[in-house]
Amino acid sequence: MKRRIMSILLVLALAISMISCGGTKQSSTNTKKEELNVNALLDSISDMKAKSGEFTMDFDISDPSLKTQLGLDSLKFAIKASCIQKDEKNSQVNLSYKVGEGSDYKALTSFLTKDNKTIYIDFATLKKALIDVFNTYKVSEAIAMISILPEANYLKIDMEQLTSYTKSISGVQGNMTALEMEDPEKAQKVITTAAQYILTTMQEATKDVKPVFLSGSDKELKVEISNKNLIPVCEALSKLDIDAKYDELVNKVKAVDSNEEYTKEFTTNKSQIVSEIKETLEKAKSNKENKDEFKVECETKVSGEKGNRTFACKFTAAGVEKTTKVNMTLEMTVCEKEASDAMISVPTDAVDIMEYIGNVSKMLKQ
């Protein structure tokens, strides 16, 4: 991972959260003031030099199909990722999990990136954890499949070797540029520019919609949308000239990235993206008879001064559709503080990933 990649992902996560909420709304009639608050928040996040962070995903699903397919009344699962950016070229991610009610987090696996060239995966712990999860939910076929995999404490992945391998597979194009950004600051600026334009455009278009669903300041932002205000928001956004607004967005990101190193997707997929936006808005507008209840909230906050800042984002969603209930929470906290030096040592008993794939292939042929 290149320098400041965590900061780039932060801005992207915020932008996606805002879009997935369905829109934004001003909390006052002072349009200029609100736009400046949104921009200040995004600028503050994009400027962060994140060195450590934590991400948790917790969901609870109750659906009749779970009973027929897995023999379960509900599915409860949570994942936690703790990240340490030791320096520009070395980082570590520790993953843990929990299943069911009230259980503590258990180790899932860890990833150690060394010199931006090699990744080491704690495979032994991963294998054990997967068996535990499948055993909890009594998925015997998966347990049998995982159990027969060859033993290996760590798997070693050479990024150049992996790229060459994926390119050699028919129909698959191996491209690691998403992980190997040569100019992360430019990519970061592109994401920030796009997010700012999308948010402020939505603000202006939905300023008269009630109930209010966006509030905050230059360091806080809260979005709340439900079955009570979704249709008014979509109706307001439908009045926009989506094609023209999209062109404006493209021009803004091109001004940041004239060589289209990170903005090619904006230009090459315009017709598809615009079509999907229009279709989504029309479907939402026509679904006025839907009585299903849902609520989505997204809260973001930046605290502390530059060099010692913390960014926190919490995304929660709850929905009831006939006999199906879904509850999901995503939380992310990233800090600029110096991370702990507690990096795992490069394992000496790592098996090269290509060698391991070969061993699995031999085993399957027997």
Question: What's the topology here?
Answer:
Blueprint lengths: L4 H16 L10 H16 L5 E11 L1 H7 L4 E11 L5 E9 L6 E9 L3 E5 H14 L3 H8 L6 E5 H10 L15 H22 L8 E3 L3 E7 L3 H9 L3 H15 L7 H5 L1 H16 L7 E11 L6 E12 L2 E12 L14 E3 H13 L1
Parallel strand pairs: 6-12
Antiparallel strand pairs: 1-2, 1-11, 2-3, 3-4, 4-5, 5-6, 7-8, 8-9, 9-10, 10-11
Helix pairs in contact: 1-7, 2-7, 4-5, 7-9, 8-11
Overview of this structure, please?
The chain is an alpha+beta fold. It has one domain (5-365). Helices cover 41% and strands 27% of the residues. It has helices spanning 5-20, 31-46, 64-70, 123-136, 140-147, 159-168, 184-205, 230-238, 242-256, 264-268, 270-285, 353-365; strands at 52-62, 75-85, 91-99, 106-114, 118-122, 154-158, 214-216, 220-226, 293-303, 310-321, 324-335, 350-352. A twelve-stranded mixed sheet has the order 7-8-9-10-11-1-2-3-4-5-6-12. Helix 2 (31-46) runs antiparallel to helix 7 (184-205) and helix 8 crosses helix 11. The longest helix has 22 residues, at 184-205. The chain is globular, with a radius of gyration of 23 Å. The protein starts with a helix and ends with a helix. Mean pLDDT is 78; it is low at 1-14, 18-36 and 170-180.
Main traits of this protein?
single chain; 366 residues; alpha+beta; twelve-stranded mixed beta sheet; 27% strand; globular; disordered N terminus
